[in-house]
Amino acid sequence: MCLMKKWQKILIEIIAVVIFILVALKLVQLWTGVNPLDNITHQKDALENINEVAAALTLEMEEGKDGTVVLFIEDIPESELLNINYIMSNLNGSVDSFQLHPKLFGIRRVDFQIVRSDNSYVYDAYMNGTPIPEDRVEAQKLYKVVKQIIEIEIGDQHLTEYQRELVLHDYLVEHCTYSYGKADDDNEFRAYGALVEGQAVCNGYAEAMALLLSCAGVENQYVVGTAKSGSRAAVTDNGDGTVTPNQEKKENHAWNLVKLNGTWYHLDATWDDPVGEKDVLSHAYFNMSDELMERDHTWNHDKYESCPDMSWNYFVRSKKYFQDSYSLDAAVTQMVTAHPYGTLEFAYSQFEITNTTLQGLSTVPGLSSVYYSTVGSFAFSVITLYINQ
């Protein structure tokens, strides 16, 4: 009997302790807005850096999430969270806002509000026939444009992945104008601005390229990093129709990776859309390797696929890549003779272009002038010839 009373007393004490703990946890939740049990549960899988947060949110967006996403983080500064959209792919959506909860047991809960993008609706509609909601008017407009572009540029032609990439790249560069950014125009940062309105900054070019390639069945990734602004004629809009060149510096930038025959390559449609006196189609950044892209672009190599070679580079595939001036002179003279007008593009390395390098062009009948511009370095440069009759 005494033993039974002893166990009853122990049981009551245990129950009292449990009730006390539950009440304490509830009071902590009411006071901080944080459920301590959640923090304890997620201690082992709490995200340690901003790249892990970006990857987790990107995954949610790829799965069509629209609304609240709850993540648990360790010591990640709020300033880094505020810049989350700059280091993640915004193709499928973006972070609209977030709420930080008090830190408890070494980790912090963050409630992210993510918004599904028009691109996501367009891709789902094109690939799966999923109707776009009536209230997504811009998504419906974007869908019509994307569908039309692919039908006209690709249609029922049996194009390879490389050929599909090329025609879509050329379409975008020829139909979109590079913008220097307007504070009140978010569309310039979206595929909508590039494809529907015909004006975009680098984010818009990269989004448009990713959307077109994805709908055309070409595997790709959206890349965020930085680039040397001086390499892309970075300027300040003076507001009176004129612009002022900026000093070279690293700025946030976006471009694409494209997978061809099992190998990845860099594709920067923004920098293939030259600005200035000669606004012509370029392929200077069409399927570049990591080594060459690093000349003026910076990115987190751990976050993206590696691009080891130049096998599917535009100039390599089109046999317009030269490693000695004699071969370049001969090929250019032959092509100019056949088409003595407009522009011609070539790539070269291991030698320098001078005013006398292309002296053979002076023998071509009917030419009034030939001048050129170059992009790149001794390791790999692209020359564009501007030919007048």
Mean pLDDT: 82
* Shape designation: elongated
Q: What's the β-strand tally?
A: 16
Q: How many DSSP H or I helices?
A: 12
Low-confidence stretches: 231-237
Structural class: alpha+beta
Largest sheet: 5 strands, antiparallel
Helix amount: 25-40%
Gyration radius from CA atoms, angstroms: 28 Å
Say what oligomer this is: single chain
Order of SSEs: HHHEHEEHHHEHEHEEEEEEHEHEHEEE
Ends apart, CA distance between termini: 116 Å
Largest sheet, spatial ordering of strands? 11-10-9-6-12
Sheet-strand content, in percent, reads 15-25%
Top keywords for this entry?
389 residues; alpha+beta
How would you portray this structure in words?
This protein is α+β, with helices and mostly antiparallel strands and 389 residues long. The protein is built from twelve helices and 16 strands. It has a five-stranded antiparallel beta sheet with strand order 11-10-9-6-12. Strands 13-14-16-15 form a four-stranded mixed beta sheet, covered by helices on one side. Strands 1-3-2 form a three-stranded antiparallel beta sheet. Helix 7 packs antiparallel against helix 9. It is elongated.
Gist?
The chain is of the alpha+beta class.
